[in-house]
Amino acid sequence: MPTIITVNGERRSLDADPETPLLWVLRDELKLTGTKFGCGIAQCGACTVHVTGEPQRSCQITLKDAAGLEITTIEGLNGKVAEAVRKAWASLDVVQCGYCQSGQVMAAVALLQAKPKPTDADIDTAFDGNICRCNTYTRIRAGVHAGSKMLGG
User: Fold this and answer.
1) How far apart are alpha carbons 125 and 104 in whole angstroms?
2) Distance CA 78, CA 106 (A)
3) What is the pTM assigned to this prediction?
4) Residue 1: what pLDDT?
5) Three-class SS of residue 7?
């Protein structure tokens, strides 16, 4: 029996095993490869997607648990907050290798949607568990603040 999920605003019918992690459904079944596999145990943040607007680790959500929820991947991220984050990331050259950045951007957008003018402590809390092996944390923080300023925060 197919499982129906909504990804990036589109309803999809999938015949995959309902116990398959959402991460692999996105990457292998739907070919949305912007969501990255990092650790598989929800410790690194590379696989972060928005589930009904909240950042969640897709490696820990099964296909059956995703049924009926609104899933947004980096490919489907849009709106003024997403655009401000993208512009801030580009203008400050936040990315180094880029592997973790889809998860970082998803966290930044969720934070700025919830708190348009976050403090450094807010950023640290929101990004806790989002690992950047290149250690661009100061640029990530600056990117969040720049995005906030672009939005009038």
Assistant:
1) 13
2) 11
3) 0.95
4) 84
5) strand
